[in-house]
Amino acid sequence: MPEFRQNYATKEWIILAPERGKRPHDWARESKPETVAAVDPYVSDCPFCAGNEDKTTDAVYVWPSENDWQVRVVSNKFAALQRDLNPVRNLDGAFLAAEGFGIADVVIEHPKHDRTLATMTVGEVEQVLRGYVARQVAMNADDRVNLVTIFRNHGARAGTSLEHPHSQIIATPIVPPHVRYPIERAVHHYDQYGRCVYCDMLGEEIRQGDRVIMETSGFVAFCPFAAKSPFECRIYPKRHLASFFLLGEQELAELAGMLRTVLAKIYHGLHNPDYNYIIRSAPVGDHDTRYLHWYMVIIPKITIPAGFELGSGIYINTTTPEDAAEFLRETDIP
Amino acid sequence: MPEFRQNYATKEWIILAPERGKRPHDWARESKPETVAAVDPYVSDCPFCAGNEDKTTDAVYVWPSENDWQVRVVSNKFAALQRDLNPVRNLDGAFLAAEGFGIADVVIEHPKHDRTLATMTVGEVEQVLRGYVARQVAMNADDRVNLVTIFRNHGARAGTSLEHPHSQIIATPIVPPHVRYPIERAVHHYDQYGRCVYCDMLGEEIRQGDRVIMETSGFVAFCPFAAKSPFECRIYPKRHLASFFLLGEQELAELAGMLRTVLAKIYHGLHNPDYNYIIRSAPVGDHDTRYLHWYMVIIPKITIPAGFELGSGIYINTTTPEDAAEFLRETDIP
After folding, report:
1. Could you give the ipTM of this predicted complex?
2. Does the pLDDT value for residue B38 go beyond 70?
3. Interface of A with B in 65-94 (CB under 8 A)
4. B window 160-179, beta carbon within 8 A of A
């Protein structure tokens, strides 16, 4: 029987229609010829490969050193936003506009072309996360910045043509409705119940348990009750914390282990599907707030939102998050 | 210079970054081998071709007659929602859910497999619109229905594998946040200014004029100021009207002419790209409201939303709506 389910925090609805769907193992599509294993570790015209540093802008962050880096963060040469503009709103007739100020970084995650987070060591993944923190802190310091979005596009269906392992960070002067509306719901919940809505949601996911992929002392990974698409995964810190950059050293190491495990389960279990992930933090200046909670969402791109999803915002999910979580729990990684 | 632009009605922002983009004619990708012209008018295993009516459920609407139909509406055999369920909300632990009640129609637009709205006659398109109206009226009459979404998926990138020309209508018991939030903004605008926000937006689009594709006495088609993607097109009635099904006979004929022209310009100018279109009406019971305005949005699927769009809700559009509208105005159709 199909079912509507509501996201406890955002109040968005999805339709779970498993009768139409495949069993989790059906999703494991045949290995792509272009999977990472078949790619060279060095590609001469790749701007992100070690040895080709002159093809990018100067690094804004490197670890451990410019001459022998594992993580190298550069400005996006093809950025949609520019640093030297002024985001003051102005009117174009009756319509509101602003110059396209923003900061757009590319985080080169590894010197070698043939790696991806799922196949790196936990220590390497941890250094990528440390790079995110350093850059989020630097962007927060710009008075014009109000929101920092950290994300990763993996594969053509996820919107990237670049194979070299990388993620991106974009700082914007604007907090858009897509981000603001869930905040308003969270404030409402806090005023009503005196608790963070995400803390309450996490508590319920852990209590029900059948959608949990893994849990450590500080974090939990699960396929959410109202997952919009098959194998949507989320990682939350159990401790109430509104922004990612506030994580401590030990927490970053622990998160790196969990992220690497979940991505490796997706990589091996579903044969390296394309995916997006996003780290959502509170707007700049709201990182001490009691009603927001940072989290990470991983969205394998194995289905296509169509007219109904675009029109109604109600996503049809053909695989239950309970089945997806069980499949991922049972997927072994090397 | 990149620019932020705000949707006047919904308050959503987009980034216009034309430096990164292509000129409109660059988008006209090479003709696909599978374009409509190369397809047979009859395909023996297509459930929607005339002659194969036994492969579908019984028709809930036909025009002009069951034996010689142009438009035939049937229940979706693979519907995500079912008619015989009860949409009462219930709690699953702390989480809200409901049985998956809904009505899901498939509108078969033409008996022949090798047509699409862009290549049908205006009279044929008008009959498709009349089918929408009849079914929207019938769905509105079910007390459990609160929202009727009419949409069309054209091509694999738009989420359909079925070639035969068809659209879909889904009635849901739920008005989700994606639909409700813009309504709340529209109410706010009405209370503030005493006018429909969409009427005001239309007036400004017509006054500025450079994004208008075409205009008739009753309708206007344009690429909106804050278009989310290249060649996003919208069609609005000039007369304030909250729901599509309220259109009069003459208006339906006039709209059919405009819709067919805009789709033909996209078909010929951009070489039959995949697209979604959506007709958004007010929730059931709100069709007399002074603050909502039905409209149609056409979204060619020539770009892929990536992690930034999913995370922030801010879409990066690489082709200005001014350029897109000029290109479409100048595209000749046979």
Report:
1. 0.95
2. no
3. 78, 80-82, 85, 87, 92-94
4. 160, 168, 170, 172-174, 176-179
